[in-house]
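Field notebook, page 347. I keep forgetting to write these up properly, so this time I am using the form the group agreed on. The chain and the ligand, nicotinamide-adenine-dinucleotide, are recorded exactly as supplied. Prediction of the bound pose follows.
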Amino acid sequence: MPYKIALYPGDGIGPEVITEAKKVLEAVGADCNFTHIDWNTTLYAKIGKCAPDDYLDKLKNFDAILLGALGNSHNAPDHIAVQPLLGMRRGFDQYVNLRPAVLYEGVECPLKNKKPYDIDMIVIRENTEGEYTPLGGRHYIGTPYEAAIQVNYFTRMGTERIIRYAFETARTRNRKHVTSITKSNALIHSMVLWDEVCREVAKDYPDVTWSSMLVDAAAMNFVRQPEIFDVVVCSNLFGDILTDLAAVIIGGMGFAASANLKPSKKYPSMFEPIHGSAPDIAGKGIANPLAAIMSAAMMLEFLGDEKNAMRIKHAVQSHLKESKVKTPDRGGTARTWEIGDDIVKRL
Ligand code: NAD
Ligand code: IPM
Ligand code: MN
């Protein structure tokens, strides 16, 4: 049975990079049946919504969703444009957000004296609660007393399952080290719970070493000594911020892939580049599609087609190491589609 894949290109460079990801999936011979989803901010102009109300129902029977990017502030308010993305993460309980950051051979690192694979970490971001909980409200709107409340919501269950996932992941890696990102010096409820749960979970993994690091210090260390990180586990907002930083130290936003996983596969998981719709370069055909292509490889791996996932990863690595075909973010003049073609050639 072919995998049922919802292709959801979205806005801006989303369609440009997803075209290349699909090209690579087809070229590798992955057994996928694609359904094109045309929800984006253009739809908002027509129906006042960026996706139909029943978008979760429409997506729930797919095996996976491959998303480009959402958001175009000329067409729709940003918090409305990205709502389906956050809605899928919560609605499909995709509680694990996997964001690997590896410095590959052939990629220029903005940090001094870094060799390939000096940076080799995986950030595991909590994806369904924390700072992104849509609870709260506005009060006394438009008056000098106006207030906005955004509830920071951490459950023991949600915290434990993501930290456990991080320790399980560390077990499968060479260095077997977890860094738990915290801010319990200031966030005296949520992050103190986080730290307590981490200490408890760690007891079940005597073979894994771990440490706790304040998020501000972590931001510094991602730049100062990124080689110390192996598995990094963090809350929703901290993970969002740290993974843009992780992307830029491995070459740029065009490199950073991600997976939003429902590990039990009860609902579809979603795969997407970490970057957004990049309005500054959208429509120019110069976006780097590698993040989208690597996200497609993560999708195949999760669905069980490890062989083709590895073939895509190897083709990307050989492209990075050997090819002179580079998009402008890497100092080249190549177009988005030329990167896809070069990878296809190497499969
Ligand atoms: P962005 O990631 O879109 O862009 C940041 C910078 O990185 C820009 O200079 C852009 O040109 C560059 N960049 C990003 N992807 C690139 C690629 N593949 N190749 C080359 N350069 C690339 O972030 P932003 O500008 O803060 O956000 C733009 C819009 O995207 C906003 O509407 C935001 O809400 C949305 N957004 C969506 C997602 C998502 O759908 N997953 C993620 C982040 C931001
Ligand atoms: C990401 C994005 C999203 C997030 C936005 C678009 C809501 O920045 O996936 O990193 O904050 O999670
Ligand atoms: Mn982000």
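OBSERVATIONS:
- The pocket of manganese (II) ion (ligand 3) is lined by residues 240, 244, 274 (CB under 6 Å).
- The two ends are 23 Å apart (CA to CA).
FOLLOW-UP: compare against the apo run.
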